[in-house]
Design a protein that fits this description.
Radius of gyration: 18 Å
Shape: globular
CATH class: Alpha Beta
CATH topology: 60s Ribosomal Protein L30, Chain: A
Number of domains: 1
Largest sheet: 5 strands, mixed
Helix content: 25-40%
Strand content: 25-35%
Structural class: alpha+beta
Bound molecules: zinc ion
Low-confidence stretches: 171-177
CATH superfamily: 2-C-methyl-D-erythritol 2,4-cyclodiphosphate synthase
Mean pLDDT: 91
CATH architecture: 2-Layer Sandwich
Number of strands: 7
Strand order of the largest sheet: 4-1-7-5-6
């Protein structure tokens, strides 16, 4: 019924990038999973480079403010925060805008650890957080050949959103017609 006046695009694409530096003595969190390593990624939250890039991709797809604007590093509230909080907020905004996630493709760049043994667990957890099937989450990991990034983890993410129902905040002024 409401689709005739719905001017929203059928699909929207989003892109997110993030990087964090490795430091010893902190847990390594990637995609909401803690990997047993002697060094982790430092950041104002839990340093989850993958969840941050996904969050920014989702926010970017609906032209919302980015993760740094919504959750400023200067705010002590977010120090050590579980990054799934950021992801959930981004997902809520996507849904409120009347879109759902079709699929996601991510590339991690890091020297160590090897991601392949953990890929299924990471994809499964990310899919659960995003409430999609695991085969909607693509994850590739590369070593930083020639990039001089031995001490850094980088994540690139693209998402595709599909229009669902009406945007939650959309006002319907044409109900009589
Ligand atoms: Zn980050």
């Amino acid at each position: 019924m409401p689709t005739t006046n719905d001017q929203r695009l059928m699909t929207r694409i989003g892109y997110g990038f993030d990087s964090h530096e490795f430091h010893s003595g902190i847990p390594l969190r990637i995609g909401g999973i803690t990997l047993a390593q002697d060094r982790g990624l430092s950041g104002h939250s839990d340093g989850d480079v993958l969840l941050h890039a996904i969050t920014d991709a989702l926010l970017g797809a609906i032209a919302a403010p980015d993760i740094g604007a919504l959750f400023p590093p200067s705010n002590p509230k977010w120090k050590g925060a579980d990054s799934s909080v950021f992801l959930r907020e981004a997902l809520k905004r996507v849904r409120d805008a009347g879109y759902g996630l079709a699929n996601l493709d991510a590339t991690l760049i890091l020297a160590a650890p090897k991601i392949l043994p953990h890929a299924a667990a990471i994809c499964g957890h990310v899919a659960e957080l995003l409430r999609v099937q695991p085969d909607c989450v693509g994850l590739k990991a590369k070593t930083p050949e020639g990039l001089n990034l031995e001490n850094t983890a980088v994540a690139h993410v693209v998402v595709l959103l599909e229009r669902t129902k009406r945007a939650r905040n959309a006002t319907s002024k044409r109900t009589r017609r």
